[in-house]
Design goal:
The complex is a heterodimer of chains A (206) and B (98). Chain A is mostly helical. Chain A has one domain: Up-down Bundle (Four Helix Bundle (Hemerythrin (Met), subunit A)), CATH 1.20.120.80. Helix content of chain A is 76%, strand content 0%. Chain A is built from seven helices and no strands. In chain A, helix 4 packs antiparallel against helix 5 and helix 6 packs antiparallel against helix 7. Chain A is elongated, with a radius of gyration of 19 Å. Chain B has 98 residues and is mostly helical. Chain B has one domain. The longest helix of chain B has 28 residues. Chain B starts with a helix and ends with a helix. The relative contact order of chain B is 0.10. The chains are: A mainly alpha (206), B mainly alpha (98). Chains A and B meet through helix 2, helix 3, helix 4 and helix 7 of A and helix 1, helix 2, helix 3 and helix 4 of B.
Chain lengths: 206, 98
């Protein structure tokens, strides 16, 4: 019998299928979803601040993106989407009972997270060289608030991926039980989702 | 026996589509003049990218309906708000003036 990805239980198989989270089709656990919705609410408030600030200072928000480094923003989007892809592959590998492959995919994801952090720090230095700081105008204040907040999320979410690698090596995440790993993967995807909105808001739309 | 090809196809295609849309967004950022049509196009791309990531990477298309509802709503509401805040920017400024 062949098994497609959609047939897999969200959090594993065997005893895990009787866990409340699995019975309720919750990927990972309840706690991580409380965290994810809290984080998305936080980003949502930042987006509302952006809308209001843009309405009050249209000229600053029209000219602001032109002076930012679009290439850096684009490369960071590539890095985050690729990292999300690698995390999804890592989870699929665990379900196929191939923890070594899963670890390899997770290292790829961590590498992408590292690339993001390096590009973002380089971009901040580049901004300062162009005379763009937090006090330049309202657009750049919102830009720094949003992107630095997001950078922090990428930083600690990368740490959670390293934790997942450690757990995989220790044999704590298996084909039968990978609730914790699914929770970490969902959090990482949330960080990617936030950037999906941030990138066009700051670099594309005028 | 597990059919591995079925598992990876959706992920690979999603990654490719997301990269193409991101490249298109960057092209728009560098070349297009601001207009409502461009804003609508970008909002559509945000909603589509979000849905793609949620359904294929996050696997919400098989998940709890409440989680699915709130996550999908987020990526309908915020792209819509981006467009509406652009369309009614003067009214928004009036409403939020101190």
């Amino acid at each position: 019998m062949s098994i497609a990805a959609t047939d897999f239980n969200l959090n594993g198989n065997g005893a895990v299928t009787q866990e409340p989270e699995t019975l309720n089709k919750i990927p990972g656990n309840r706690a991580v979803w409380v965290g994810i919705f809290a984080e998305l609410t936080e980003f949502g408030i930042f987006f509302l601040v952006y809308f209001i600030a843009k309405a009050h200072y249209p000229e600053q928000f029209n000219q602001g993106p032109l002076k930012l480094n679009t290439l850096a923003g684009t490369l960071n989007t590539f890095a985050l989407i690729s990292s999300s892809f690698f995390v999804a592959k890592a989870l699929a590998s665990v379900r196929l009972n191939d923890p070594q492959k899963s670890i390899s995919w997770l290292w790829c994801a961590v590498f992408c997270g590292g690339i993001y952090l390096v590009i973002k720090i380089w971009e901040y230095h580049w901004n300062v060289d162009q005379g763009i700081t937090t006090n330049t105008n309202n657009f750049y204040t919102v830009y720094y608030y949003l992107t630095f907040n997001h950078l922090l999320h990428v930083f600690w979410a990368s740490g959670s991926l390293l934790w997942a690698i450690r757990q995989l090596k220790a044999g704590n995440y298996t084909q039968k039980n990978h609730i914790g790993f699914t929770a970490i993967a969902c959090y990482w995807h949330m960080v990617d989702l936030a950037w999906v909105i941030i990138f066009p808001l700051l670099y594309v739309l005028r | 026996m597990i059919d591995k090809s079925n598992i990876f196809t959706g992920l690979d295609i999603s990654w490719f589509i997301l990269m193409i849309i991101t490249t298109a967004n960057a092209f728009v950022a560098e070349t297009a003049e601001p207009s409502l049509a461009i804003t609508a196009l970008i909002c559509g791309s945000i909603a589509y990218k979000g849905r793609r990531i949620m359904d294929y990477f996050m696997e919400l298309n098989h998940a709890n309906s409440t989680i699915q509802f709130f996550m999908r709503s987020y990526f309908h509401v915020f792209p819509a708000l981006i467009f509406l805040s652009d369309l009614f920017s003067e009214k928004l400024a009036m409403l939020t003036a101190l």
